[in-house]
Amino acid sequence: MRAIRYQAAGGVVVDGDKVLVLRRPSRDEVRLPKGHTKKGESRVETALREVTEESGYADLKVEAYLGHQVVEFDYQGVHIVRDEHYYRMRLLSDRRAEREGHEFQFIPTWVDWDEASEELTYEPEREWIQRAREKV
Description:
This protein is of the alpha+beta class. Helix content is 24%, strand content 46%. The mean pLDDT is 93.
């Protein structure tokens, strides 16, 4: 089986006692925002860009590095190894950015901490919620 390894970064975005999750009805998923690191881009830059692209929220502040984990899975005959780095972020204002293309598949939703942990589709993302909650 062919294997692909890549770096990704994302964020747990907090606004008061709410956490941002992305609903993706086309796949029946609830996720945290994250994505591939582009060449020459830092992990923080990736996390901020991906959160903005996927959620539309553009006024964010990185508060803490939550850590790194390696996630492995098989998808369409390819073994994926993803090095994920996450950051706790605070929403500073409701200022929005244009979202384009596939980013409209995501519906940004604010939920409380417990709901975020319960609703996230994938177990590795629940770990980021726990780490971000501990940083309060």
